[in-house]
Fold this sequence. Notes:
The protein is mainly α and about 80 residues long. The protein is about 50% helix and about 0% strand. The chain contains 1 helix and no strands. The radius of gyration is 29 Å and the shape is elongated. The model has no long low-confidence stretch (mean pLDDT about 75).
Amino acid sequence: MPSEGETDHDELDDYSKGIAQFVCIYTAKKLAERDARIAKLETQVEMLLALFGKSGKLPGLDAKAADVIDLPDWRKRTDAA
Length: 81
């Protein structure tokens, strides 16, 4: 669809122009729904980052961490059977 002041030089018939207009409107609607979901998720991520601190580092996501945690050996039986 030509904007104001522009002439239509695409040489499409009315049927093709209608299809193109429908596709543009449909795509814009779907992208608006997607953009709304993305905005909501971005807000949630920002809230989580605020809860974990301003550093932006979430616990457990440091790939270079060499901390060793000694977990109890839960497979051992401590009672005499």
